[in-house]
Design goal:
The protein has about 140 residues and is mainly beta. It has 2 helices and 9 strands, in the order E-H-E-E-E-E-E-E-E-E-H.
Length: about 140
Amino acid sequence: MTGNGTAAVERADLLTRDVDLLAGLIRQQYVGHAVTFRCADPATVDGQLRTAAADGLTAGWLSLGGIEYTARLQPAPAPTTALVLRGAGLIATRGQEQRFTAGDAVMVPLDQPSSATMADAGYVTLQVPWTALCALAE
């Protein structure tokens, strides 16, 4: 927070066809993963990552346009939720499976590794730091 009660906002914006660059930024921003991408035509890839962060709270836009994404995910380091705006996918743990499509909300598992598959997906994301959740729970 600044002295006048407002928070500084940090923004990041990436638009790329480089799936390796996109994978690295997803790993850095959201969750560690071992990923494989497939795309029928590299010219149609629309990889986007946009974020805005203030006081640890991060809102974002993630686009995997023209990409099929398959990954093994580590547990998320912070509660991370996504609202699916386009595409479809699946996140599965050893005991549960969640399929999703446009209009659904999905949360990256916090307590165990998971696997994920997604196709031509676009998400609005929200990451909330544990400290903020604990303060709300008090």
